[in-house]
Write a structure and sequence with these properties.
globular, 5 helices
Length: 110
């Protein structure tokens, strides 16, 4: 199976590129110019909108708001110099640890 292009890494690279090569009327540059406090507020605001969409069970709104959260989180991560690959590695470690815990429980059969 061919590996799919990772849109989150692409967004991260776009954010990096916008920081180095400014674009007139770029929303990414607007966020970067406002700084980390503003960016994190936007992550929080978009997260709340996603929570409300999930509560209402509106599929279109959930997809839209999840995309907003991931975009703003990507800009925040790039601002903190943390790549999505680092997040992915952390999730892999947690998954392995969960698998190990599960296997231990199975072996002892309490």
């Amino acid at each position: 199976m061919q590996k799919e292009n990772n849109i989150l890494e692409d967004l991260y690279e776009l954010s990096e590129d916008r920081r180095k090569n400014r674009v007139v009327a770029s929303y990414t540059n607007y966020l970067q110019d406002r700084g980390p406090d503003y960016i994190t507020r936007k992550v929080g605001e978009e997260s709340l909108e996603l929570i409300l969409a999930l509560k209402d069970r509106n599929r279109e709104d959930i997809i839209h708001e999840a995309a907003d959260v991931l975009y703003h989180l990507t800009v925040a991560l790039e601002d903190a110099n943390i790549r999505w690959s680092e997040i992915s590695e952390e999730l892999k470690i947690r998954r392995k640890n969960d698998d190990d815990k599960y296997n231990v429980k199975e072996q002892h059969n309490y």
